[in-house]
Amino acid sequence: MDLMIGVDLGGTYTKFGLVNEKGELIAENYVKTDTSVTYTAFFEYLISQIKLLHTDTAPLSKLQGIGIGAPSGNSLTGHIENASNLAWAESIPVAKLVAKYSNLPVAVTNDANAAALGEMKYGVAKNVDNFISLTLGTGLGCGIVINGKLVTGQNGHAGELGHTIAVDNGRPCGCGRKGCLETYASAPGLRQTLLQLLIESGQKSVFSNVNPDDISAKDITSEAAAGDKLALLAFNRTGEILGRKLADTVALLNPSLIVISGGLANSGNLILEPLIFSSKKTFSVFLKEQFLLRFLR
Ligand SMILES: [Zn+2]
User: Fold this and answer.
1) What would the pLDDT profile of 7-37 be if each residue is shown by its tens digit?
2) Fewer Cβ atoms within 10 A, N terminus or C terminus of the chain?
3) What share of the chain is helix, strand, coil (3-state, %, to 5)?
4) What's the 277 CA to ligand 1 centre distance in angstroms?
């Protein structure tokens, strides 16, 4: 049996799994993304753990290659370039390093593009030639597939919808601009909106007397589901901003499907309803007929 290795390199944890030709996960594990050591030491350790998983769970199988999704991973250079949530703030030659320690072919891309490729090959976007994949989590990732091909752009940086301006002169973003979509439509963005509403609205909420440091996007989701008005308002604002941007994106690219995944997708209708409402307001019939929105939990 031939197996591939999939790696999801995140700011806190790095998950990895053995996957067969049908895209089925055979075994998985994770390590902490330890940025207190050099990246060379980290990737050497990561490969030793992957080899261990292989010998422990599927020793008779043959490993064919490694695919890595990483923040700011560039498929054209094989590098991670200045990822803001990884403390190794420089250009890391991940593909070269991992190939050296594993003796396997290695492909690197950013996590949003990896999600889009996964949906295209094994997921809900199978046989869909034009779609957009959004990952809503710590940031907002976007992978664009046009005419059956992932759009990389000239230098591998295409699809940065999260860093297009959603609010004029809005919240400062890690990229240096102000008002980027990611600073609103993401887990930290939702949290920020709730904290702002707590101050501005004067409305009572279960969060009124909670230390802001103790409020997470997950808490806001569960309290909104339980009917807290302020938490619901935070979701409405978030969905509205994202919906307007998606309407623009649909006008620009004419996709037949938008797939939304990532931690914030767990909120389901809480974000989906205001999102659809505001995108319809922008594009009325056009949007309704032109695309199908899929949420993945
Ligand atoms: Zn930005």
Assistant:
1) 999 878 999 999 999 989 999 999 999 989 9
2) C
3) 40, 25, 35
4) 25
Q: Record the pTM.
A: 0.86
Q: Could you tell me the distance, in angstroms and rounded to a whole number, from the CA of residue 84 to the centre of ligand 1?
A: 11
How many angstroms separate the alpha carbon of residue 167 from the centre of ligand 1? 11
User: How many angstroms separate the CA atoms of 258 and 28, rounded?
Assistant: 28
Instruction: Check pLDDT > 60 for residue 165.
Output: yes
Report CA(160)–ligand 1 centroid distance (Å). Answer: 9
Q: Measuring CA to CA, which residue among 182, 177, 178 is closest to residue 140?
A: 182
Strands 2-9 and 62-70: parallel
Q: What are phi and psi of 245, to 5 degrees?
A: -70, -40
Distance (angstroms) between ligand 1 centre and the Cα of 55 equals 42
pLDDT for residue 291 is more than 60 = no
Helices (H), 67-216: 94-102, 111-121, 187-201
SS3 category, 226: coil
Tell me the CA–centroid distance for residue 177 and ligand 1, in Å.
5
Summarize pLDDT for 184-238 with one digit per residue, the tens: 999 999 999 999 999 998 888 999 999 999 999 999 999 999 999 999 999 999 9
Q: How far is the CA of 188 from the centre of ligand 1 (A)?
A: 13
CB 241 within 8 A of CB 140: no
